[in-house]
Amino acid sequence: MHDQVEYRARYVIKISYEKGGTVVQLADIERVAPGVAYLSPDEHEALHRFSLLWTLFEAQMLESNASAKKISEKVQSVETEIIRGGWFAEHLDYFSDRYVDGSNTNQRFENLYLRNNDNPDLVRAVLTGENLEPTSQLIGCLIIVYRFRNNFFHGIKWAYGLQDQLDNFKNSASLLGKFLEKVPNDI
């Protein structure tokens, strides 16, 4: 198995060089984080973007102390015109498509591991379309991103090798970037 992983890591590195990409050696990390060598360049980029944007979002917007409550307070302090601009609609659509089947949330929703203080009822109502209020919708989306952050940084995502997560991290990073662009950090 170790030989296969090392070969795969070298193969990915060779492809990255041929495409002119930046290469990060991960063979040593593979020993403690099985599967990391199998991440594609797109997955690496999405994880880097997400990590950097989350850190900036948490520092600037949440006073370096993230929680669903803090996210709710921050979004509720944003001017209504900013929130009503429709700039996060594609992310809400993505999360709804991912976490709702028919009119009910699905197993993927359960795998977010929303805690009671993460306001799961609000998130569920937003995703199923029961709550169409834009402030609530943005709060719901950002709580999902917060759960990605917790599940990623605290290891739950490693349990299944980050499979099926590329679009989650791309959408999350994009939403965080838009939020940082649209919302003044001095609120």
Provide a short characterization of the protein structure.
The chain is mainly α and 187 residues long.
Number of strands: 2
Weakly predicted, low-confidence segments: 4-18
What is the spatial order of strands in the main beta sheet?
1-2
Inertia-based shape: globular
* Radius of gyration, CA atoms, in whole angstroms: 18 Å
- Tally the helices: 10
What structural class do helix, strand and pairing data support?
mainly alpha
Give the terminus-to-terminus CA distance. Answer: 52 Å
Mean pLDDT: 84
Beta fraction of the residues?
Answer: under 5%
Give me the secondary-structure topology:
Layout: H1 2-18, H2 27-30, H3 41-61, H4 68-76, H5 80-83, H6 89-99, E1 100-101, E2 104-105, H7 107-110, H8 120-128, H9 134-153, H10 166-182
Antiparallel strand pairs: 1-2
Describe the protein's architecture and organization:
With 187 residues, the protein is mostly helical. Helix content is 62%, strand content 2%. It is built from ten helices and two strands, in the order ααααααββαααα. It has a two-stranded antiparallel ribbon with strand order 1-2. 30% of the residues are buried.
Pick out its properties.
about 60% helix; about 190 residues; mainly alpha
